[in-house]
Amino acid sequence: MTNKQLSPAAQAVLKAVQATLPDYTLTDSTAGCFAAAALRAAADGCDPDWLALTVLHHLYSIADELEGSN
Length: 70
Prior knowledge:
Low-confidence stretches: none
Structural class: mainly alpha
Radius of gyration: 12 Å
């Protein structure tokens, strides 16, 4: 991840991952990669007819941000 400020959505996801794995010492970068992978898996598993494409795009955007791609 880059040093730039994360969006509120990305911060919430990162915080949730870090809270879920309290016994591990996770860097923001590692937690961000875990979170990005989980978001991508969730988005990939969604039926676009059921879930609005804009929501899927938002999930992928957050994953990109957590990986430092943005």
